[in-house]
């Protein structure tokens, strides 16, 4: 019934030539990693996005996680809300239904589950009730999901460390630059999203799967299924970032933009699922420690401030404080009701 809108959205967005980088030498720490770092630098300056292949993350694990995630979203609503985010309290973990998450004040056409590092009640940050830290909520009816999510978070955390060492090299910094200052104990957040097909929804209610935004932290490593729908904003227009099997798509977040004075861009992106299928995506956020103060790197570049073009019209360069300060201010806008209750 609403197909016309999706066809219009889809036909105006062209494909984009985001670089595809084989990072196997970064994982195995061989000499070629210096060349890989050059490719990362070019991609981060020009697009703020790049695909990675040769990442070493078990494909079977990825596919199993996708299958079990589809099983979860196919459950009755009653079953899904047993792990509702409102039961996760300050830890911000659990399930939210379609329409609950907002971007720039508008409801997104997606449902999902929030996960993070699995921390028990004795962890110092959990004891002091720091938001976003705590235990995950997993569905009893799908025990496999717990096992796969925890394995996936571990694999992706390792990948995050390798990529940050490559990003450090790409800026002519020592390989451990970010690990020493920000990510020896990274803030790790992981989400599984289900974007229902847009064609059978009211376009007046749902404009986007997720509306235009930038990511908040250092680096996002996204796995998307083969349905497509991710779009990236370039200087001139919106472009599609189509799925490539067994690749991840990486993008720079606001904190790396701030640290590099805008040399590496935190690029706006959004999702529109014009396929007739449920689109699953698995964004993994590899971010600075919650209490880390975010400082500029001593780079010989002028500040490149794109506040005018940014979705939130705010400057990442003016921000002062810890990553936790930045993140909480953003997250509370995404789930205003929940944040009023738990933060
Ligand atoms: C995000 C995001 C894209 C996707 O979670 O920040 O941009 O494909 N996700 O789900
Ligand atoms: Ni994003």
Summarize the structure.
The chain has 343 residues and is an alpha+beta fold. The chain has eleven helices and 15 strands. A hairpin with a 2-residue loop joins strand 5 (102-103) and strand 6 (106-107).
Describe the structure.
The protein has helices spanning 3-11, 24-28, 33-46, 59-73, 77-80, 124-127, 143-170, 177-183, 254-259, 323-334, 336-342, and strands spanning 14-15, 20-22, 49-53, 94-96, 102-103, 106-107, 111-116, 187-195, 210-213, 219-224, 230-233, 238-240, 248-252, 269-271, 279-287. The chain is of the alpha+beta class. It has one domain (2-342): Jelly Rolls (Sandwich), CATH 2.60.120. Strand 5 (102-103) and strand 6 (106-107) form a beta hairpin.
Q: Strand share of the residues? A: 15-25%
Number of strands: 15
Shape: globular
- Report the sheet with the most strands, covering strand number, pairing sense and barrel closure: 8 strands, mixed
Q: Please, how many helices? A: 11
Q: What radius of gyration results from the CA coordinates? A: 19 Å
Helix content: 25-40%
Which superfamily, in CATH terms, is the homologous superfamily? Answer: B-lactam Antibiotic, Isopenicillin N Synthase, Chain
Distance between the termini: 41 Å
Q: What pattern of helices and strands is seen along the backbone? A: HEEHHEHHEEEEHHHEEEEEEHEEHH
What is the averaged pLDDT score?
A: 92
Bound molecules: N-oxalylglycine, nickel (II) ion
Number of domains: 1
How do the strands of the widest beta sheet line up side by side? 2-3-13-10-15-8-7-4
Secondary-structure content class:
alpha+beta
Uncertain spans: 1-11
CATH class, anyone?
Mainly Beta
Q: Return the CATH topology.
A: Jelly Rolls
Q: Which CATH architecture would you pick?
A: Sandwich
């Amino acid at each position: 019934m609403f197909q016309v809108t999706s066809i219009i959205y889809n036909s105006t967005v062209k494909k984009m030539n985001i670089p595809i980088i084989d990072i196997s030498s970064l994982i195995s720490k061989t000499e070629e990693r210096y060349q890989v770092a050059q490719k990362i630098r070019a991609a981060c300056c020009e697009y703020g996005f790049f695909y990675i292949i040769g990442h070493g993350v078990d494909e079977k694990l990825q596919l199993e996680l996708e299958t079990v995630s589809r099983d979860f979203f196919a459950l009755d609503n009653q079953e899904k809300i047993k792990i509702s985010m409102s039961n996760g309290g300050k830890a911000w973990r659990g399930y939210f239904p379609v329409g609950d998450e907002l971007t720039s004040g508008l409801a997104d056409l997606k449902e999902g589950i929030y996960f993070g590092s699995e921390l028990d009640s004795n962890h110092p940050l959990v004891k002091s009730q720091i938001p976003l830290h705590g235990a995950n909520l997993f569905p009893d009816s799908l025990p496999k999901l717990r096992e796969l999510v925890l394995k996936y978070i571990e694999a992706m955390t390792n990948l995050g460390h390798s990529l940050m060492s490559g990003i450090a090299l790409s800026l002519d910094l020592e390989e451990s630059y970010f690990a020493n200052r920000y990510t020896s104990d990274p803030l790790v957040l992981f989400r599984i999203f289900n974007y229902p097909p847009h064609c059978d929804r009211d376009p007046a209610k749902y404009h986007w799967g997720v509306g235009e935004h930038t990511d908040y932290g250092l680096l996002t490593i996204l796995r998307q299924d083969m349905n497509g729908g991710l779009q990236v904003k370039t200087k001139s227009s919106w472009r599609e970032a189509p799925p490539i099997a067994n690749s991840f798509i990486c993008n720079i977040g606001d904190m790396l933009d701030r640290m590099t004075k805008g040399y590496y861009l935190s690029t706006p992106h959004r999702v529109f699922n014009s396929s007739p299928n449920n689109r699953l995506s698995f964004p993994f956020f590899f971010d600075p420690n919650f209490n880390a103060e975010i400082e500029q790197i001593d780079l010989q570049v002028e500040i490149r401030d794109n506040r005018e073009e940014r979705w939130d019209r705010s400057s990442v360069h003016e921000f002062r404080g810890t990553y936790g300060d930045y993140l909480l201010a953003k997250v509370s806008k995404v789930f205003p009701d929940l944040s009023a209750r738990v933060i």
